[in-house]
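User:
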Amino acid sequence: MIKIQIFPAFLLVSIGLMSALSGCGYNYYTGPLRPDDQQATSMTVADDGTVTFVQDRFEVHLKPMTDEELNRQFFNNSQAGPKSTNPYTFGNSVFWGSNKEKQRFAVFKLSVKNYAYPKVKIDPSKIMIKAGNNREYWSLSFEQLDTYYRPYAIGYRGNEYARYQERRDLLRRTMLKDEEIFSGQEAEGFVVFPALHPDVASIDVQIHDVVLRFDFRNEPVETTNLEYQFTRDVGRIYSDGSIKLSKID
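Assistant: Predicted structure:
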């Protein structure tokens, strides 16, 4: 006699899920941004991943920052897990059920050297990311980041409020400012964007309306647009640590 064993439906579903999780569980994988091989002739690429626009003695440097670099730069603000006050990252937080660190924002360091013009100006609000799959990301202002962190200030008193204020102070000191840069001056700061989606493999960082000359009324009379190309690996990282990269057309 042949015995047929019938399993309850919920048990079959559970077995299927356990098999899927044990053999096929994965998270999205994204590598760090790096300069693309195709840059404009006016651009140079440094070993540390900085791409520089050069025109006479006017230079605009742009470098994608990893969370590791930002945590090292703000080391004392990145060592308290979820209570870390580094405004650009999650600090050294460990997320349950994942062997992959989460990125809070996409951050770039922008540096300007002006030894060619009486004064120049770059407006951070006119910097955007155009992804290869047509997604767009505009830079975040201090006010937008303040709104993001304000709910953390529970009751606006005590330790949570102090951490909120510390994040605000760091943002004020380190974000790129919307200011004129006079001849012989240099300036730098961070430009912050929403975190890129995991399917974004290539991006153009576009800086619109860089003012090179002003008239006697302080109105722009000569502007230029800059474009920096970066790329990164994307794919899947499985529970055993293996990585399968996606094919990029």
